[in-house]
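ok here's Protein-arginine kinase, seq below lol
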Amino acid sequence: MSFEKFINNAKTSWMCSDGPDSDIVLTSRIRLARNINTLRFPILFSNEEAESVIHKVSEKLADQSNEKVENLELLKMEELQQLEKRVLVEKHLISPLLANEAVYGACVLSDDEEVSIMLNEEDHIRIQCIKPGLQVMEALDKANDIDNWLEESIDYAYHLELGYLTSCPTNIGTGLRASVMMHLPGMVLTQQMNRIIPAISQLGLVVRGIYGEGSEALGNIFQISNQITLGKSEADIVEELKSVVLQLIEQERAAREALARTSNIQLEDRVFRSYGILCNSRIIETKEAAKCLSDLQLGIDLGFIKNVSKGILNELLILTQPGFLQLYSGGQMNPNDRDIRRASLIRERLLLETE
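and the structure came out like this:
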């Protein structure tokens, strides 16, 4: 996949597809951390060892005869502009670490962008699979297919008692990070999140913002993921996460129903005010856009707004990020120009819904 082809296909399958409980769960993601047995971890390895990782994976890419593994192509970070790498981060296909700091980093993408394999990030190989809606077990199955395929010709660093060996001790064991991205405006508006987050942490899970560790919960979107990777099977980790997510779905639906019952006119007013801002603004910052898009999505889910696509939040939250805006506008832009372009793009996209 050339980067031009990637750009022409700006919207990934997980942005556009419906999945189970997709009114609340935007995406499910699985990430598997793996290292090559004969090479030092990325924090210590040489440039030659970094190149060796890419070479080994490139050789394996030549064999895509397995029907479960197809249409995978490699992009080297050194061949991409900084803005192009930023877009990959905004689409959740690579991490900021790989984009900004990795030595001889690369990623392998599938045509539908559900599969992304990061090379020479914190670990030699990080396999990622993203699915729309609550499909965390399905994402695990796909990631395991890729993992098994790579292991046919790559000898992983593995300890009989500890499991897969990783750069960070918190990933030792399964090397699995399972996460779901959830839209939780009901619990935010009813002020439940401050109580929920500590409770989730006590269950061995962590709550982060839209772009993972250290990021902000833009648009009332939160990532829920496991913290423990050692001493549990992959299936157990995923089932425990799914169990908590199902409870959060119930609580979010209850919160939305309570808001509609006790504050219906105020909630409807909030939704339509945000809709009006999105349809008419000539300049809008990232945070305001995210807040208004969250309100709009809530209005769609509650039936207040009927003429806008269901997945508008997932789509526009990505397409209005700074990297996307600049790349599609032809180059670097100052913050004010980005805010103007963001408002224009949102108006254009919403106009398509009413034509």
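fwiw The chain has 14 helices and ten strands. kinda neat tbh
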